[in-house]
Design brief:
heterodimer; A: alpha/beta; FAD/NAD(P)-binding domain; 6-stranded mixed sheet; B: alpha+beta; Jelly Rolls; 6-stranded antiparallel sheet; 5 helices; 31% strand; globular
Chain lengths: 487, 140
């Protein structure tokens, strides 16, 4: 670790301050730096990694990185198969994760992920003031004042990437006597004990999986039936990695899974009392930041700005507070690195443009290439595959055909603007995956769902025909000739 | 205060859930998700697939058809049910008037929910009957 005299970002005035040093903060800082936006990054930790410096409890991730994949390692299309590397435009910071894995699993271990994030920060030159704890927030005119253990930071724009608000504990009397997921220690300490786990989501099943070879009996209970990701065909539900307790249960192996409300927990013998935690969002609610739901996520605009306090933004897992369309109840992947790393990059462009006058880089397309471009994006763009029905590739069609880049789909649908088209990938409860095309014509939005394909190849003649029908009358006439150029 | 306890307290006072026991209310709070919409944001979008059933916990929402406001909805009222029951895209936009807090149930979960809580289905039918009666009066 650098000596104290080398710590960057002393207290003072900054254009923008990011709080956090997990994947969300590192990605946003990298992307802002590439756009020339000067900013400070503060973290209470001693090194990069955020939650991955400690969790998951059993030290292996739920998100995979495939060292060998249908697309070449290091390309943009490869990102679809690598859920864990942060995004670099070029150079040695790109595609860090696969080279650090030991080959024993395509789910990286926690230390491998921690190393990957530290390697990214080092190679990409992301600077963070570590050991600087954010403690309070207030306003002074048009500035926010972030009080920290190293003094006050004044800034126009503050971005919080501090993880999901607080460990959720159901309001069950006596449950405070039980250890939360975050307080679990070694599996060995459960040897020959009966273990009752409250909760049937991934953390509950991760604990059960890790304790299968130690506990005398495991009972998993909550009011709702277990959902499995292989059945929901989304990341909603218990992931296959943790399904072993479920198989144990259905084969009557000793694990019990109950659909029951838990009314009360009382201490019978040894137990330990868990301290009450304050919210990770500290005093932001006093500034007027509205939150909602079990995890007390901050309510956000499509560009991850607090819905109630302009100038406060969120990155990392907190970006889940911008829910998007959530069609059929299917959420975005903003709760995981493979999703929120793209949110951070889009947010960096948005912040650079809106607050610092950095004009977006756009390129023009030939009108006759538009359909092929959109279908290629639907087939290969990692942003659209990892953030389905959430991020979209937008092309504007007023006069010139201009590639506007990746944007939040709800922004495209709700904000209005010139004639344009947006493509994303969507799915339905039957598990079909298909390109979804949204056209904006004289301000009115139309939805066009193209056919699914069993091999996820969306560049077929029939897809071209369907897309041409959706775009009819939108393209400038006559079709312009010319080559793509950057402007 | 725990979020779920808050939701149970609020929905206990809504007509739609008035007949449920506390344990059932906790079940409802468990299957619905909470959502927050800032003033002016759209909750349901005319013509887009994949919507859900919404119950207003707090705030007000406007019903807009082709951009023209037709009516408003308040605390305890629900919307999106026609789209869910018929599996068709909504025929109106629903837009938050001021901060709006809702419970949301995605369309695929609406049938299992209503059949599990027939008394809620009955209250919903009553509300639909009132809407139909008012529309019929208007036509006369």
């Amino acid at each position: 670790m650098a000596g104290v005299e080398e710590r960057p970002f002393p207290a003072g005035d900054y254009d923008l301050v990011i709080v956090g040093s997990g994947p969300g903060a590192l990605q946003l800082s990298y992307s802002l730096t590439r756009l020339g936006v000067r900013h400070a990054v503060l973290s209470q930790d001693e090194a990069p990694g955020g939650m991955f410096r400690k969790w998951p409890v059993f030290q292996r991730l739920l998100s995979w990185t495939k060292p060998y994949a249908p697309q070449q390692r290091g390309t943009r299309a490869y990102e679809r198969y690598d859920w864990n590397s942060l995004l670099a435009d070029d150079g040695p910071a790109r595609c860090v994760m696969p080279a650090l894995m030991d080959g024993s699993s395509y789910f990286p271990s926690r230390p491998e992920m921690e190393r990957s994030l530290a390697t990214f920060a080092e190679r990409a030159g992301v600077h963070v003031r570590y050991g600087c704890r954010w403690e309070s927030t207030s306003r002074d005119g048009d500035r926010f004042v972030l009080g920290t253990t190293d003094g006050d930071y004044r800034t126009r724009v503050a971005v919080f990437a501090v993880g999901v608000a607080e460990p959720w504990r159901p309001p069950i009397p006596g449950l405070e006597l039980a250890a939360h997921y975050g307080e679990q220690t070694s599996a060995e300490s459960y040897a020959d004990k009966r273990v009752f786990i409250v909760g049937k989501q991934n953390s509950g099943f991760e604990l059960a999986s890790g304790l299968l070879s130690w506990a005398r009996q495991i009972i998993i209970a909550s009011p709702s039936p277990t959902k499995l990701s292989v059945n929901t065909r989304t990341l909603v539900g218990v992931r296959a990695r943790y399904v072993q307790p479920w198989e144990d249960y259905v084969l009557a192996g000793g694990v019990i899974i109950l659909n029951a409300a838990i009314e009360e927990v009382t201490r019978l013998a040894d137990g330990f009392r868990v301290k009450t935690r304050s919210s990770a969002l500290r005093d932001l609610s006093e500034l007027g930041v509205a939150t909602f739901g079990q995890s007390r996520l901050p309510a956000q605009t499509p560009f991850w700005e607090s819905a109630t306090v302009p100038g406060i933004y969120f990155a990392g897992t907190l970006s889940q507070g911008a829910a998007g369309l959530k069609k059929y109840g299917i959420p975005s992947n903003s709760g995981a690195v493979q999703g929120h790393r793209y949110n951070a990059r889009v947010l960096a462009h948005h912040l650079a443009n809106r607050h610092f006058g950095v004009a977006p880089q756009r390129s023009t397309l030939r009108a006759e290439d538009l359909a092929s471009f959109l279908l290629a994006e639907a087939t290969r763009a990692p942003e659209l595959w990892h953030q389905r029905s959430y991020l979209a590739h937008v092309v504007s069609l007023s006069g010139e055909v201009v590639d506007e880049g990746i944007a939040p789909l709800t922004h495209f649908i709700d904000a209005g603007g010139p004639d344009a088209v947006a493509v994303t990938v969507e799915s339905n409860p039957a598990g079909d995956l298909y390109p979804a095309v949204y056209t904006r014509r004289a301000g009115a939005i139309s939805e066009h769902l193209l056919e699914p394909d069993p091999l996820y190849e969306f560049e077929s003649p029939s897809h071209h025909v369907a897309l041409a029908a959706a775009l009819e009358g939108l393209l400038p006439e006559p079709v312009r000739a010319g080559t793509a150029k950057t402007r | 205060m725990p979020a779920q306890a808050e939701v149970v307290d609020v929905i206990a006072r809504l007509a739609l859930f008035a007949d449920l026991s506390t344990a059932q209310l906790e079940g409802v709070a468990h299957v619905f998700e909470e959502a927050f919409f800032a003033d002016g944001t759209r909750v349901l979008r005319q013509g887009l697939t994949g919507s859900g059933l919404y119950v207003i916990l707090d705030g007000e929402a406007a019903i807009q058809v082709d951009g023209v406001e037709r009516s408003t909805l308040g605390r305890g009222e629900f919307f999106g049910e026609i789209s869910c029951l018929l599996d068709e895209p909504p025929v109106a936009d629903i837009v938050a008037h001021g901060p709006l807090r809702c419970l949301v149930l995605p369309r695929p979960q609406v049938q299992p929910f209503l059949t599990a809580y027939p008394i809620v289905m009955f209250r919903m039918l009553q509300a639909e009957a009132r809407k139909l009666r008012n529309t019929t009066k208007w036509l006369e």
